[in-house]
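User: Predict structure, ligand manganese (II) ion.
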Amino acid sequence: MASTAASKPPSVGVVTQTMASTAPSKPPSVGVVGIPFSKGQPRGGTEHGPALLRDYGIVERIQDLGNKVTDYGDLTLDAVEDDKPWNKVKNPRTVGQANRKVSECVSKITRDRQIALTLGGDHSIAIGSIHGHAQSCPDLVVVWIDAHADLNTPLSSDSGNIHGMPLSFIVKEMAPYTARLPGFEWCQPCISARDLIYIGLRDVDEAERAYMTECGIASYSMQEVDKYGLPDMMERVLKTVDPTGKRPIHLSFDVDAMDPEYSPSTGTPVHGGLTRREMYYIAEEIAGTGRLSCLDVVEVNPSLGTEADRKKTVRTTVDVVSHFFGKRREGNVSADFKMPLPQK
Ligand SMILES: [Mn+2]
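Assistant: Predicted complex:
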């Protein structure tokens, strides 16, 4: 069985034993865009995330797996002048304007039937990414892999950092609890609470927990990861958000979901997280659905930690991303591979 699977070109639509698959007949096409942005949180550095990920070969790694990749470069994102805080919320217009550009870009990539890969940037960029994705794929589901719920509102947030609030702008059921920020006039909530699921939570604010319960958002925190184990958990995750197995998947991957042992160069690390090996499994299962439609990779901050920390973080991240795009631990054989044969 392994040999027939391995003789086909590698693709995201790998058939796995645990899931039905809608494997595409040809390798998928991927559109990459860098989002050099850090204004959703107080530390500089995440704006250099796209450059670091590219320097470590993220585009080539995906290409080498047999995927057709178009790199659209980095978005140009400017700070809005005189961007006064809204209550405690910092940089509202700058974050709003940047996300409008992200939305337009991701909408175009996914409308062209490419899988969008967004290289952040802090996690506030997922506002635009999910919004844009939903414009071309309104039936999408969101899998949010993170140590944090990122569900605070401009009213509940203590820090005023928008990277802790992105889902409050996106989830329809959050509308009664939140406030409209200047700079966000373009942004309408676009997913239902039942179309969102969390993996990896371990640092959830009281208000966020209350919103999750009130809106009915499902989560597999680290407690459930420990309780069920990865294979059982991933089956439950996919059955919960998409029992029919047909809908496009928006995967938002905050590198702080992983334990700081694997991704130390990030702004809000929390111990007790996912291992590199657990992330490989999650990525392989998502790839196995053949329905990955957009992947956000966020919160890599090259300015934090030592050179060794930076290297560890970016290497782990690029490795994990390659598994989302078809890399298999059992091995891959490319379409143009020629088996060396003895001379006659
Ligand atoms: Mn996050």
